[in-house]
Design brief:
five-stranded mixed β-sheet; single chain; Beta-Lactamase; 489 residues; 3 domains; five-stranded antiparallel β-sheet; alpha+beta
């Protein structure tokens, strides 16, 4: 993958080169057309001048004198070129003219004029009909007059010539003025070279300027990269990159948000490790003591008692570890809820069926009160709601005395469902109820780790619901959980 600078330079210079090429080609074509128009106009002007100079009444001696003067001028040009004092132009030999009568006889011509011009063109223009193949034929002359006058490009000898042929109807003269095509091609080439030369010379300079401009434009990105490289691995503080260009502001905000999330994850891991170490230290120490007592007890009764205590300790340690793992799994930045359309009434019934043996073991009355005709559907995550019910019912069973009552009520509203769990236990003082949601806070002689209601609170928060602790009509504690039907609502 190329760097951003290289990609930008390739794109900009590529587009610039393509644009300059197209513009240069268009300029070349326009220059070529204008030069050809200019040369064609000069050919026509020269023909008109010759037409004005020569007439039918011009004596033959005058024409011969004019032809002699033209020949002497050509000889003088050659003489000057031999001694190095030429005052003419190299293109003179590439320009020519002829004046012919109606029989095709040359009346006047330049020294460089090609021979047989009119005869060749007349031969090309003769029709295939059975007409006498002579220039004097009236029908053939009319045909030639209509098609021969004007501009033509013909091949004569080793060169192509651009000709302008003018027919003088008054004097019956043919005036042929022409120039070689290489004169025009050479001039167009020089014009094109002079127009393209600044572009060819300026393109590397322009590329250098573009390279510097792109580098200056990408300097904030380079500073950001250098700042990130220079940071220590354990430095998760937000990046101080202001002021930033508007294009880099989303990137800077995303990096800072990522650093914040990573920092939160690390803090959660540290907190989990600290919580686990804090809560498991005592149970493990107790397990070790019970194991030593069982090994050292000489009396079978003492040994069985120590083993019984060891089993209780293992059960408590298992409960602590399970709750710690559940709490870590429900961290907002870790958990991904699978929201589905759930029938809460049927779900609660299934959960209570699994938890009923716990209540029966303590001879407690566990029942469900709900209106069968109401709609209890909502969007929720089934596993996390199961964890919520297990913790709430487990706490109620644990703190309700033997033979007590546990009542589960379910109410349906238009936008939410309300779950109430009431018990006949000792209850909690109003001043202490909020402390029950704190981690590792326990009241009484319960065998839990003090994480049950912390887990319940986390599940409720993930579902955008609310939870309250009230006095129960049965005499103990009431837990009221309100869950919206639509989590995004």
């Amino acid at each position: 993958m190329l760097s951003i600078r290289a990609r930008t330079l390739l794109l900009v210079l590529g587009l610039l080169s393509l644009s300059m090429t197209l513009i240069s080609y268009k300029s070349y074509r326009d220059a070529q057309h204008e030069i050809e128009e200019l040369f064609d106009a000069q050919l026509a002007q020269t023909a008109r001048l010759l037409q004005g100079m020569l007439s039918r009444d011009m004596p033959s001696s005058a024409r011969q004198s004019l032809q002699s003067a033209l020949n002497q001028a050509i000889l003088a040009q050659h003489d000057d070129s031999d001694d190095g004092t030429a005052s003419g132009h190299p293109y003179e030999g590439k320009l020519a003219f002829q004046v012919l009568d109606e029989q095709g006889q040359v009346l006047l011509q330049s020294a460089s004029a090609p021979t047989g011009v009119l005869e060749k063109m007349v031969a090309d223009l003769k029709p295939t009909a059975s007409l006498p193949p002579t220039l004097a034929t009236e029908e053939l002359l009319k045909h030639i007059t209509e098609h021969l006058a004007g501009y033509h490009t013909v091949s004569l000898g080793n060169y192509h010539w651009r000709l302008f042929i003018l027919h003088d109807r008054l004097d019956s003269h043919w005036i042929v003025v022409g120039e070689r095509e290489d004169v025009r091609g050479e001039l167009v080439g020089k014009v094109a070279l002079r127009s393209l030369l600044p572009d060819l010379v300026g393109l590397p300079l322009l590329a250098l300027l573009v390279w510097l401009a792109v580098g200056w434009g990408l300097r904030p990105l380079q500073r950001m990269a250098e700042l990130i490289k220079a940071r220590a691995p354990n430095n998760l503080a937000p990046l101080l990159l202001s002021p930033l260009p508007s294009e880099l502001e989303p990137m800077g905000a995303a990096l800072n948000r990522l650093l914040l999330q990573v920092n939160q994850l690390l803090n959660q891991e540290k907190r989990f490790i600290a919580d686990a170490a804090h809560e498991l230290r005592t149970p493990l120490a107790v397990l070790r003591i019970h194991a030593q007592n069982a090994l050292q007890a000489p009396d079978p009764v003492d040994r069985n008692e120590a083993l019984h205590q060891l089993g209780s300790g293992v059960e408590r340690a298992t409960r602590v570890i399970t709750q710690l793992l559940t709490l870590a799994r429900l961290e907002p930045s870790v958990v991904q809820l699978a929201m589905v359309n759930l029938d809460l009434l049927g779900f609660v019934r299934n959960e209570l069926a699994e938890l009923t043996p716990l209540a029966l073991d303590r001879q407690q009355d566990l029942n469900l009160d709900a209106d069968e005709n109401s709609d209890y559907h909502l969007l929720a995550d089934g596993p996390s709601l199961g964890t919520l019910l297990q913790n709430l019912i487990g706490n109620a069973v644990q703190y309700t005395p033997t033979g007590g009552r546990i009542q589960v009520q379910l109410h349906a509203q238009a936008d939410a469902l309300t779950l109430r769990i009431q018990d006949s236990g000792p209850g909690v003082e109003p001043a202490l109820r909020e402390k029950l949601f704190e981690r590792f806070y326990r009241q009484g002689d319960g065998q839990g780790a003090g994480l049950g209601l912390s887990i319940v609170l986390r599940v409720v928060e993930l579902h955008r619901g609310s939870i309250r602790l009230n006095a129960s009509p049965l005499g103990g504690l009431e837990v009221c959980v309100r869950l919206p039907r639509d989590v995004c609502g």
